[in-house]
Amino acid sequence: GIGIREVLLTSGCPGTEAKCIVRVEECRGPVDCGWGIPISEGLACVKMPCIYIPPENRFKYVWKMLIPNKTAHILPNDSAIMEVCRDTHSITFQCETQENGNIIASVKYTVYATTETETKKSRRIETGQSRRITTDAILVFVLLTGVIVTVGAIFAMILMILHWAVVKSIWESKSGQDNQDKKLANKSSLRNME
Questions:
Q1: Quick check: pTM over 0.70?
Q2: CA 177, CA 165: separation in Å to the nearest integer?
Q3: What CA–CA distance (Å, rounded) separates 158 from 131?
Q4: Residue 20, beta-bridge partner list
Q5: Cα separation of 154 and 148, whole Å?
Q6: Could you tell me which of 53, 84, 80 has the C-alpha nearest to residue 66?
Q7: Which residues of the chain have pLDDT under 50?
Q8: Mind telling me which GO cellular component terms the entry cites (predicted)?
Q9: Interval 47-89: pLDDT, tens
Q10: What is the predicted pLDDT for the residue at 15?
Q11: Which of 66, 118, 132, 155 can pair with 92 through a Cys bridge, CB separation 3.0 to 4.6 Å?
């Protein structure tokens, strides 16, 4: 394909420069550049560019409609950019960039049908909605669990406050029992010493 490259010099550059540009030149690579990305893509139409470098009018552009198992149909459009409106079925286009009768670059585009773009869009929306629903369900579960635990803790504290006397007597009886156990243990240890 066509492009621009910089020729660098790695020794003998002026001053203390380690690398310096000697010249900028046009370069050529493989002709088939594969599949391109449209300039703009809407629900109704698509704008597709050929491969070129300025000045654009230096090259000749041949647009073809590729039909499976048939010879490609050459289109009358000879500009670097072609706009195509979507049809009822997908169509593949190819643009060949020519210079002096030689093909120097080629790129292909598939323009999907209106129904296919709507289907893809609805799939993206459905996928997004199902993810959103799953996330929302998890958030609701976590929120409800947090609310239930908080309400339970508050309820337990309220019960403790309302029945403080009972709680206090239980603690006192336990501490009293602990004290009695300690006194008995001390008396038995004193007896053992005697």
A1: no
A2: 18
A3: 41
A4: 9
A5: 10
A6: 84
A7: none
A8: acrosomal membrane
A9: 998 888 777 888 899 999 988 888 888 998 888 899 988 888 8
A10: 75
A11: 66
Task: Determine the pLDDT at residue 180.
Answer: 58
Q: Which two tokens stand for residue 26?
A: 């046009």
ω into residue 30 within 30 of 0, thus cis? no
pLDDT of residue 184: 56
Q: What amino acid occupies position 189?
A: S
Residue 47's Cβ-side half-sphere holds a number of Cα atoms within 13 Å equal to: 5
1 within 8 A of 104, measured Cβ to Cβ? yes
131 vs 135: CA distance, rounded Å: 6
The pLDDT score that the predictor gives to residue 63 is 93
Written as one string, the DSSP assignment of 158-186 is: HHHHHTHHHHHHHHHHHHHHHHHHHHHHH
For residue 86, give both structure tokens.
């979507």
Neighbours of 131 (CB within 10 A): 10
Place of tokens 């993206």: 124
